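Might I ask for a little of your time on a matter of protein folding? Here, with my thanks, is the record as I have it:
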Amino acid sequence: MGTQINRPTDLLSLVGRQLGTTDWQQITQDQVNLFADATGDHQWIHTDPQRAAAGPFGGTIAHGYLTLSLIPRALNEVLTIDTLEAALNYGLNKVRFPAPVLVGAQVRATVALVSAQQKPGGVEAVFGVAFEAENVDRPACVAECVAVYR
């Protein structure tokens, strides 16, 4: 379940709150291969299931940046703003990949609003996003992402 607000300025009163947790999403080898093609990162731990089976993780793993790239989907799933002109990615403050995501694993994200402030171009919001993989103790990705809402 997520959070629904009327307009971007409503974010100002939600600072410090958890906005929601996404549904589980499976990471597939097709996704990983497409990401490898898009980024040019064809390292065998991502794209060669046979070789990776004998490697350090027992199978192929998702690129850390693939997991990171799921943030817009996570934000859209946990936050609905009814009256919105634009939502703009502004950047990242912190990113870490504490644990690998095995291909075939289910992942989900929990999103909290770390800060929000009115700026001339709109409301700048900083979200704390933590991705977890099913049955893994450490998070797969922890990030602070910044977005501007108009």
User: Anything to note?
Assistant: Strands lie at 3-5, 18-21, 25-26, 79-81, 87-96, 106-119, 122-133, 141-149. The helical segments are 29-39, 44-47, 49-53, 64-68, 71-78. The chain has one domain: 3-149. The first strand starts at residue 3 and ends at 5.
